[in-house]
Amino acid sequence: MPADLKEGRIVVVGASLAGLRAAEALREEGFTGSLTVVGDEPHAPYDRPPLSKQVLLGQATAETTELPMRRDPDAEWRLGVRATGLDLLGKRVLLEDGESLPYDRVLIATGTRARPWPHKDEAALDGVFTLRSREDGAGLAERLAERPERVLVIGGGFTGSEIASACRELGVQVTVTERGPAPLVGALGGTLSKLAAVMQRNNGVDLRTGVTVTALNGNGSFTGAELSDGSRVDADVCVAALGAIRNVEWLADSGLAAGPRGIACDAGCRAFNMYGIVTDDVFVAGDVSRFPHPLFGYQLLSLEHWGNAVEQAEVAAHNMVNPGPLQRPHLAVPVFWSTQFGLNIKSVGVPTYSDHVVIAQGSLEARRLAMVYGYKGRVTAAVTVDMAKSLDYYRHLIETAAAFPPPPGAADRAIAADVTIPSDVPDPSVLSHGPTVALTGHLPDRRLTVV
């Protein structure tokens, strides 16, 4: 490693939101060495949230989702080429085309990909989609513009719910199947997910919960699906919204602590190796990372949220070019939002890290509320529905480890905060959509037992 951390060679693997923001931040932090960004897609970094909203509604095209650059990172862009391995000893990133890139420090920001429908032949039917890439968004938008008779959405997580919302806005009939008891239950718990179910049904969604899709039908083109309760859904388009897979396979032989939940790192974004020893030249940021958070019992947090990718990328970049005493921790409180069926849902903290909830403001009936989540007598999260202005107050309660139930400060009625109910967070294995926030206390590398 060069004596001066502001010089040398840095390789960023992942031309993603996190990869771009890290590259920009490295230059802002005064890095003057060579910077290479590797990306497996042929496009410059682009924004994914509009793909399930504006692009499907025809308000924007997939080509217009490119991320604006805050500054020119003066990088060599290696786009359309996949990284296939990482040699920690030789300090090289191996590429699909046989080339290898030497580095002094490397940042892994390879993100996630959509979990495909598990049966290959069925997944290959014309009319069966996932939604993750620009091509996915463009293809699905094109189908919806043709106004199909019915769309089947498999999975009631945020992506599935947003797709269903777009279909209804376009006047297209839609059926949503969810293995769990309600849509969004994996992210928001049982109480709020009931509101999500009511909103979907009130907006004309044919919502089927507690069922799985057992087969997709079609001869070349998708025509419908068989469900586990014996019923059948006839549809022309199917979207598998089954959650995401972390892009870690290329690191299988690297010796890093990389597994299905992502790559484990410390609060400074430095990757752990498979023995739990921190590396000093491999950093991780964005959806592919798992990092410890003191507010959530130091459990490792996997997040698939826009804001987290940006903040973590900036912390990683800072720590890559600054010596130990000047390094910063990534301790941001998770925030995410979703707009669906006319509702604006915003969340701060980790709702799944909870045992009880209380409605502190508003009501389920009014469809305007703030719900606060607690774990062992401490506030850990809050979710607002059409009440986003209250979120800052609750963020402060989370950051200061305030007592749960919360004091009447933000509550609009004194009694509300006394009536707590179980948060009803399901076991992720009973959901057909993956959680967008996952708390995992275990090291993901099973090879440890062999060694």
Structural notes for this entry:
With about 450 residues, the protein is of the alpha/beta class. It has 3 domains: about 10-50 and about 65-115 and about 245-325, FAD/NAD(P)-binding domain (3-Layer(bba) Sandwich); about 115-240, FAD/NAD(P)-binding domain (3-Layer(bba) Sandwich), CATH 3.50.50.60; about 335-440, FAD/NAD-linked reductase, C-terminal dimerisation domain (Enolase-like, domain 1, 2-Layer Sandwich). About 20% of the residues lie in helices and about 30% in strands. The protein is built from 8 helices and 30 strands. It has helices at about 15-30, 120-125, 135-145, 160-170, 185-200, 305-320, 390-400, 445-450; strands at about 10-15, 35-40, 75-80, 85, 90-95, 100, 105-110, 110-115, 130, 150-155, 175-180, 205-210, 215-220, 220-225, 230-235, 235-240, 245, 260, 260-265, 270, 280-285, 290, 300-305, 335-340, 345-350, 355-365, 370-375, 380-385, 420, 435-440. The strands form 7 sheets. The protein has a 6-stranded mixed beta sheet with strand order 3-2-1-7-21-20, with helices on one face. Strand 18 and strand 19 (about 260-265) form a beta hairpin. Helix 1 (about 15-30) packs parallel to helix 6 (about 305-320). The longest helix has 18 residues, at about 185-200. The radius of gyration is 22 Å and the shape is globular. The two termini are about 30 Å apart. This is FAD-dependent oxidoreductase. One of its GO terms (cellular component) is cytoplasm. One of its GO terms (molecular function) is oxidoreductase activity, acting on NAD(P)H. Its cofactor is FAD. It comes from Streptomyces argyrophylli.
